[in-house]
Amino acid sequence: MAAVIVRVDARSVAPLAGEGLSGAMIEDMMASTERESGDRAVRLAAMFESAVAASGVTVDDSPGEAGASASLQTAIGRDEDVLPALAQLADLTILPNPTMDGDGMGADRLHAVLFDSGRPVLMAPPTVATHIGRRCCVAWNGSTEGAAALAAMVPWLRAATAVRVLHAAEYQRHGAPAEAVLPYLALHGVAADLVAFQPVNRDLGAGLLAAAASFDADLLGMGAYSHSRLRQLILGGVTRHVLGHAGIAVLMSR
Description:
The protein is α/β, with parallel strands linked by helices. The chain has 2 domains: 2-123, no CATH class; 135-253, HUPs (Rossmann fold), CATH 3.40.50. It has 8 helices and 10 strands. It has helices at residues 23-55, 79-87, 106-117, 144-159, 181-187, 204-214, 229-235, 238-245, and strands spanning 2-7, 58-59, 69-76, 93-95, 121-123, 135-139, 162-167, 193-196, 219-223, 249-253. It has a 7-stranded mixed beta sheet, sandwiched between helices. The protein has a 3-stranded parallel beta sheet with strand order 1-3-2, sandwiched between helices. Strand 7, helix 5 and strand 8 (193-196) form a beta-alpha-beta unit. Helix 2 packs parallel to helix 3 and helix 6 packs across helix 8 (238-245). The longest helix has 33 residues, at 23-55. The model has no long low-confidence stretch (mean pLDDT 88).
């Protein structure tokens, strides 16, 4: 596991010079930005050290095959620029739930990794979970995004105690029907049941989350933005609703 702290580049405030601010004011802003970013990095590093100490994981920048290990790296720049490149060489990238970010940048960060890395993203639940992956739901709609999410979920599903595939007629795209998912999972040693969910107040995203909650799921796997992001921003969509309302961990692929 590799933890990443992204520090703000203090020089990013320099363009404000064209907004009528004096050179002295820009320098003060750059110094303040550097100080705040450094303080945040120190706090995050302390959290990392506390977490690995509590879990007994070895801190190793060059892990081998001796067991679980963790490393901490620091990068400078914008999250949206730095994280996708790092995520390309990761099996899974874990990001905070966007609703937890007071600066509103959480959604931009998650979208950047989803769209630009080609790798799955695990969106953490908004509150600390005692366990993730015991009871898993997979949302299926026959899309390429859903197929990628299903493949990424297989290791989780093998270890789960209960698995459910969720589908809805209104959610289905052109592609394999939901009934075909169960034989596929069986080939991987996963027993699952298939349940149709209904929209809640005509909202498919709300219906999907309600169905996962009724199963007492602690992990939901789904494809992200089977429709374009622009369409979802204008008309709403399942992905957009899940990003804003999920109370459990969600594994997404794009």
